[in-house]
Amino acid sequence: MPSAEEKLADSLAALEALQASGAIAIRSKDISRTHRERLVKAGFLKEVMKGWYIPSRPDENIGESTAWYTSYWGFCAQYLTDRFGEDWSLSPEQSLILHAGDTTIPTQLLVRAIKGGNSKTDLPHNTSLFETRATIATGETLDLVDGLRLFSPEDALILVPEVFFRNHPTEARTVLATMPDASRLLGKLLEGGHTRAAGRLAGAFRSIGSERGADEILSAMKAASHDVRELNPFEHSIVVPNAGRILSPHVHRIRLKWASMRTDVIEVFPKAQPIANDIEAYLKKIDELYVTDAYHSLSIEGYRVSPELIEKVRSGSWNPADDEEDRALKDALAARGYWEAFQRVKESIRVVLEGADAGEVAEQELSDWYRALFAPSVTAGILKASQLAGYRSSPVYIRQSQHVPMSADAVRDCMPVFFDLLKDEDDPIVRIVLGHFIFVFIHPFLDGNGRIARFLMNVMMAAAGYPWTVIRIEQRADYMRALEAASVEGDIRPFARLLAEARV
Fold first, then answer.
1. CB contact burial 123-134 (16+ within 10 A = b; e otherwise)
2. Once rounded to an integer, what is the mean pLDDT over residues 29-38?
3. Cα 243 from Cα 251, distance rounded (Å)
4. Residues 6 or more apart whose Cβ sits within 8 Å of residue 72
5. C-alpha angle 8/9/15, rounded to 5°?
6. What percentage of the chain has pLDDT greater than the value 70?
7. Alpha carbon of 70 to those of 85, 255, 411: distances in Å?
8. 88-90 and 108-113: which strand pairing?
């Protein structure tokens, strides 16, 4: 008779087969009742609503949102397709946000459906779907992105109301900046006679520095005898470098975040008071703070069942509570890696205090800090050697955060731009705050992003004339809330205040 472990292993194998087929949302009819109940009891499945489940992890605490946020977009795509077939799409507003590369989990997802019931469907962790019977994206107006049915960028820009540009300026500017010219927009504007949208979009193009796009719209609409009045829908103008030439929305998005947040940072963060010009004394003080400076990583790798896990369960060696000896070894290796990285960072600070540009030093040496952080765990066989290769090549999620970091391909586009922003910034305070925030917003590594970001912050602190600053464990909740506010709501002020207070 099979043991309990062997039965669970069989159920995990069934779940793995579903995931291998691309399933993120698991319907009751997709898996046997026996497997389903066994997986729910063991913590490998969570119920979203009656008849619908998502993969989870046994070590996730009751009430934790990570599994849901990790599965959110895939779940919504599968659920809506199961209900409506092809007769649905997301709203123009949500379409535009996603085209801008913003995959933040919305509190309420607005869905259009031909047979929509103008009703709300409650989902976990205070999220919901609201479906409305309205015109959907079809044919040339439709873009399919990871199973989600979106209005094309051009159609979404035409259809969103003026208030969208004020409420979501970064997303609107980002999409505009990815357009090489206004030709595709023009065809749709002319065909539909959208004079008000044309005036709004001409003003929007001009506000980001794209005179050509603005003039194209105005000239073509005038030639077709349309009376168009140009109007800037944004509260203020921000010129986007390389608008129309860089097609990655993620690159434009981080540039725009930096440009729009820096004023708030300067207002909130007090100016630096120069420290004594004694390099050895400064470095000695850093050594004295080492013990209190360690901080655990904030990233997780996701929720996929592996063949190795199945075999471990089948053999009876799986222990969800973790073995004390294994845990102690892992912690010891992490502490050793932190020490090694700390020494590298301290030497980087010496170079900065001797007169080198902090942005240049960070670009040249940040990868060395990262490799030092994880080399002991690789040597011990706990981590794969490939993890030291550089930026991640797979998705990563932040525990309990609505912010979903960009794809691995986008990371490779954005990191050179991030270092350019750091080097080109002339205000040392902005380097401190936005250097930390934008780095974790990009989340370039599978693990260690928080620790590397704080190392980076302290290199910028040294360059600005501040002592080494520790984000203490007592501040963790406020620290996470401040990062979430900056990532999800675009409000950098709580984070800037927290870092300013932490240095005291």
1. bbbebebebeee
2. 92
3. 10
4. 105, 127, 404
5. 90
6. 88
7. 24, 26, 18
8. antiparallel
The pair of three-digit structure tokens given for residue 218, joined into one six-digit string: 């105005």
Residue with tokens 């350019």: 420
Rounded CA-CA distance 260/237 in Å is 10
pTM of the model: 0.88
pLDDT for 331 equals 56
User: In 85-194, where does DSSP find H-type helix?
Assistant: 92-99, 153-159, 162-167, 169-177, 183-192
pLDDT band at 288 (very low <50, low <70, confident <90, very high): confident
Task: Give Cα 65 to chain centroid, integer Å.
Answer: 16
pLDDT at 37 over 50: yes
Give ∠ CA 112-118-122 in degrees, rounded to 5.
90
Name the burial class of residue 231, with classes exposed (0-12), middle (13-18) and buried (19+) by CB atoms within 10 angstroms of its CB: middle
Annotation: CATH topology of 250-502: Fic-like fold (1.10.3290)
Query: d(Cα 91, Cα 443) in Å, to the nearest integer?
Result: 28
**What is the length of the chain?**
504
- Which is it for strands 52-55 and 26-27: parallel, antiparallel or unpaired? antiparallel
| Contact (CB, 8 A) for 411 and 442 | yes
Q: Tokens representing 442?
A: 């990009």
Pairwise CA distance, residues 140 & 192, whole Å: 14
How many Cα atoms within 13 Å fall on the side-chain side of residue 418? 23
Instruction: Give 160-183 pLDDT, tens digit per residue.
Output: 999 999 999 999 999 999 999 899
Nearest alpha carbon to residue 342 among 295, 304, 307 = 295
| DSSP three-state, residue 396 | coil
**Type and span of the H or E element at 109:** strand 108-113
> Which of 81, 466, 504, 89 shows the shortest CA–CA distance to 275?
466
> What are the domain boundaries of the chain?
4-59, 88-246, 250-502
Task: Say how far apart CA 143 and CA 351 lie, in whole Å.
Answer: 50
CB 207 within 8 A of CB 234: yes
Q: Which helix (H) or strand (E) holds 235?
A: none
